[in-house]
Amino acid sequence: MSRRCELTGKAVLSGHLVSHSNHKTKRKFLPNLVNVTLQSDELQRSVRLRVSANALRTVEHRGGLDAFLAKAPESELSPNVRVLKRDLEKKRAEA
């Protein structure tokens, strides 16, 4: 499993650990990933995702998973979340 948020695409960054003497050594900045189960109100099912804590806050702020996916660009989403977004769009088109 990769260290990448399924909703925002946030991934591992690299940089330097800088000492007091300005000595630089490589280090990784890991995203704060959490395994969560989110409920889709329109599809009436739950979805297990690995998302960053920041993305989880954004989902809550926008009013749930369905509202988040409506605004999210497909380029940032993981393949299985893209399928979920397309299912939501089909469901909205039917209604």
What would your notes on this structure say?
Strand 3 (33-40) and strand 4 (45-52) form a beta hairpin. The strands form two sheets. The protein has a two-stranded antiparallel sheet with strand order 1-2. Strands 3-4 form a two-stranded antiparallel sheet. The protein has a single domain (13-94), classed as Ribosomal Protein L24e, Chain: T (Roll), CATH 2.30.170. With 95 residues, the protein is α+β, with helices and mostly antiparallel strands. The protein starts with 12 loop residues before the first strand and ends with a helix. It is 35% helix and 29% strand.
Short description:
The chain has 95 residues and is α+β, with helices and mostly antiparallel strands. The chain is built from three helices and four strands.
Strand content: 25-35%
Helices and strands, in order, run as EEEEHHH
* Alpha plus pi helix count: 3
Overall tally of structural domains: 1
Strand order of the largest sheet: 1-2
Gyration radius, to the nearest Å?
A: 17 Å
CATH class: Mainly Beta
- At CATH level 2, the architecture is Roll
In CATH, the topology is named Ribosomal Protein L24e, Chain: T
Number of strands: 4
How far is the N terminus from the C terminus?
Answer: 36 Å
